[in-house]
Design a protein that fits this description.
This protein is mainly alpha-helical and 112 residues long. The protein has a domain of 70 residues. It is built from 3 helices and no strands. Helix 1 runs antiparallel to helix 2.
Length: 112
């Protein structure tokens, strides 16, 4: 009985703290990917017209694969789905800027 009291005195605070630490760890895993996505989005915005986008597309694909392999508890699935939809949004922005660049290059200027 005397050994049980110090064990409980140490274990009780740990059992109260560990779930919060686990939640922070899971949330941080998603936020790290969001940080990389933000950098990617900035690179897409600063992309000069006519620049090759294959490198950016590969980085977006790699980020999507990493988010697809990320296993999170049910509590964090909504955040993970939001991340995946934001990755698709950045991909569509890149595709749109590429299409605008290509359509601008194929159009010949009108002469009056």
């Amino acid at each position: 009985m005397l050994l049980l009291i110090p064990f409980v005195a140490i274990a009780y605070p740990l059992f109260r703290i560990l779930p919060g630490l686990y939640d922070q760890w899971m949330h941080r895993r998603i936020l790290v990917l969001y940080g990389e996505l933000k950098i990617l989005e900035g690179d897409v915005e600063r992309l000069p017209a006519g620049e090759n986008t294959s490198g950016l597309l590969e980085r977006i694909d790699a980020l999507e694969r990493r988010s697809g392999r990320l296993r999170v508890p049910l509590k964090f699935t909504q955040s993970l789905y939001h991340l995946k939809s934001h990755i698709d949004l950045v991909r569509s922005r890149l595709a749109r800027s590429t299409e605008e660049t290509l359509s601008g290059q194929t159009k010949s200027p009108e002469r009056s």
